[in-house]
Structure to design on (528 residues):
């Protein structure tokens, strides 16, 4: 399929992909060859995530797709152009000429594997159908306004989720409904209870690529719900993911960052030990908040920060190797010690001007690194690139070079990514295991870390690592433009070969790439 990215003036040819349209609190994911329970049109209503339709099918032969921006695209047919986009209220289809479509319905709450037995209540109005879905003691409506001829068709059929089979899902067969079909020039699908959100004023950059990426990052944001961690199944505000993303923002985004981070400061008591509102313990939330503060905010909130640092230390003692289970970003494995937590904590001491304590802690860490205090696996993971980003003065140059060289020797994959565990380790998993998290941090290659490795190697010694950087860059761009959700970067890839796996759209996979853009990280650039 030919895909044209209008914003980048770039045309590519790709096979299996997902058309992804995202606008803050609703999104539409469509594959032209695979099926998933997570594809379709989804909306957030009162903090709940609902699926309203499974798919819209077009009868005309599709010649190419033009991506206009993060929330709109044109499907180009032989004798017709069909625009698909998300406005503030819903999903809209506009066709230059009448086009025959059919609409498949599957309605559910996110994560539910319930098979729906009927369409629910159907209300007929002039040029409008209203479906009322009954969902686990809740009701939600879906309205279909159209121009043309759209008739109601109540046919059910079984669907096989081949995309989800690749993810080792247990929910592979479902009964859904072919509900409407006909010729239309206009169709809008929406929920009248869904809140609309204002467009955020995002700064403009000289680089087309940077504008492209920033717009995708902010398609996942609104001030009511913060940043969504990923789509379709991580559509919540995760403090860790959001706070790490804020670390990557440049000066032009300072005002937006300040509004978000001040909200954290005012809510410290409720959230400083958690990764998200549902009570998951996190060692890094408080540390990431402080790492994001400028000097003015540190001084303004210093007494409060010192108080909560003491509380934090009562749970996470940095002089012991006893991190609680699942409290780091690698939350599917046990880590008694996490090097990135140590670096975040060291930075907090510096931020709060605890310079003597920072010096003591640095000496402690360096001695423990040499003495075998850390588990061996900590030295076989690319978290060191995040550490370099956090503080590139902690180690001597020779020490850093040795760390980077060891990671390239033990973790760098032929296709251009770093495995989350050395491929020489007995627990290494070569292929993504999906809903079984065995491979998650035992082999899978994470794009947010890969992007940090680009930043680190570019800044540390571009000349030495030029070929490695080029392969990392190529893999990231293939994921962004050719694979998975078009224009978005997925969560991870199998170690075996480059794929768009895990969540098709991942916040920090996008935001971490921003770091390298000021180093002329563009398609045909020659870095100096």
């Amino acid at each position: 399929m030919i895909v044209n990215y209008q914003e980048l003036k770039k045309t590519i040819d790709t096979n299996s992909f997902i058309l992804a349209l995202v606008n803050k609190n609703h999104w539409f994911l469509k594959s032209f060859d695979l099926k998933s329970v997570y594809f379709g049109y989804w909306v957030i209503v009162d903090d709940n995530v609902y699926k309203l339709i499974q798919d819209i099918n077009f009868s005309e032969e599709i010649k190419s797709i033009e991506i206009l921006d993060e929330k709109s695209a044109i499907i180009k047919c032989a004798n017709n152009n069909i625009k698909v986009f998300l406005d503030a209220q819903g999903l809209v289809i506009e066709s230059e000429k009448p086009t025959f479509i059919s609409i498949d319905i599957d309605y559910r709450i996110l994560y539910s594997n319930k098979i729906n037995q009927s369409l629910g209540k159907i209300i007929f109005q002039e040029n409008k159908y209203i479906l009322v879905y009954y969902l686990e003691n809740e009701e939600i409506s879906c309205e279909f306004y159209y121009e043309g001829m759209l008739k109601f068709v109540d046919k059910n059929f079984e669907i096989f989720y081949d995309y989800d089979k690749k993810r080792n899902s247990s929910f592979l067969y479902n009964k859904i409904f072919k509900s409407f079909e006909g010729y239309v020039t206009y169709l809008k699908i929406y929920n009248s209870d869904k809140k609309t959100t204002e467009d955020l004023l995002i700064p403009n950059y000289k680089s087309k690529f940077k504008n492209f990426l920033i717009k995708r990052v902010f398609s996942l944001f609104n001030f009511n719900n913060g940043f969504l961690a990923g789509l379709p199944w991580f559509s919540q505000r995760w403090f860790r993911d959001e706070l790490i993303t804020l670390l990557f923002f440049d000066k032009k985004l300072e005002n937006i960052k300040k509004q978000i981070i001040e909200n954290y400061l005012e809510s410290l008591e409720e959230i400083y030990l958690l990764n998200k509102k549902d009570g998951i313990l996190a060692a890094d939330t408080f540390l990431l908040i402080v790492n994001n503060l400028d000097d003015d905010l540190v001084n303004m909130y210093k007494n409060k920060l010192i108080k909560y640092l003491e509380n934090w230390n009562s749970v996470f003692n940095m002089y012991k190797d006893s991190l609680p289970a699942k409290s780091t970003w690698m939350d599917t494995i046990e880590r008694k010690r996490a090097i990135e937590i140590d670096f975040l904590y060291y930075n907090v001491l510096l931020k709060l001007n605890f310079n003597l304590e920072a010096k003591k802690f640095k000496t402690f860490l360096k001695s423990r690194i040499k003495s075998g205090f850390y588990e061996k696996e900590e030295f076989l993971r690319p978290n060191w690139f995040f550490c370099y980003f956090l503080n590139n003065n902690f180690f001597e140059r020779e020490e850093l070079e040795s760390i980077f060289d060891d990671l390239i020797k033990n973790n760098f994959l032929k296709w251009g990514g770093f495995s989350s565990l050395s491929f020489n380790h007995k627990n290494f998993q070569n292929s993504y295991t999906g809903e079984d998290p065995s491979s998650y941090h035992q082999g899978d290659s994470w794009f947010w870390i890969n992007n940090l490795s680009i930043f680190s190697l570019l800044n540390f010694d571009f000349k030495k690592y030029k070929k490695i950087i080029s392969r990392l860059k190529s893999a990231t761009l293939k994921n962004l433009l050719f694979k998975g959700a078009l224009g978005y970067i997925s969560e991870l890839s199998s170690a075996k070969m480059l794929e768009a796996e895990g969540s098709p759209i991942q916040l920090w996979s996008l935001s971490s790439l921003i770091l390298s853009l000021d180093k002329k990280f563009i398609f045909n650039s020659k870095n100096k």
Summary: The chain has three domains: 2-190, 253-374, 395-528.
